[in-house]
Amino acid sequence: MAVVLAFVLILSKSGRENEIIESLKDFKEIKESWTILGSWDIIVKAESDSMEDLYVLVERIRALRNVERTSTLITR
Question: Tell me, what CATH number does 9's domain have?
Fold first, then answer.
C-alpha cells in the first residue's frame, strides 16, 4: 500500500504555536513539525496509509485547542 505524504499548514492563535507542537507529538502520523514565519504558523509533515486516514488526521488537528485554520498539501 502506498503511503500518503502530506504537509499540513496550521494557523494558530497568537503565541500558542509551541503548545500546539507539543500536542502534535501524540499523533503517530506526524513525522516532523516546525514553527514558521509568514501567513501560517506551523507546518507538519504527515504520513498516512490512505486519503481517508489523512482526512481523519486533519480533522483531529483542526480539533486541537488554539488551532484556527489548516491547509493540507498532498504530495505524489
Answer: 3.30.70.920
Q: Cα–Cα distance between 56 and 35 in angstroms, integer? A: 22
pLDDT tens-digit map of 5-57: 999 999 999 999 999 999 999 999 999 999 999 999 999 999 999 999 999 99
pTM over 0.85: yes
- Phi/psi at 50 (nearest 5 deg)? -160, 170
The count of domains in the chain is 1
Q: Which domain holds residue 25?
A: 4-74
Rounded Cα gap, residues 35 and 17, in angstroms: 7
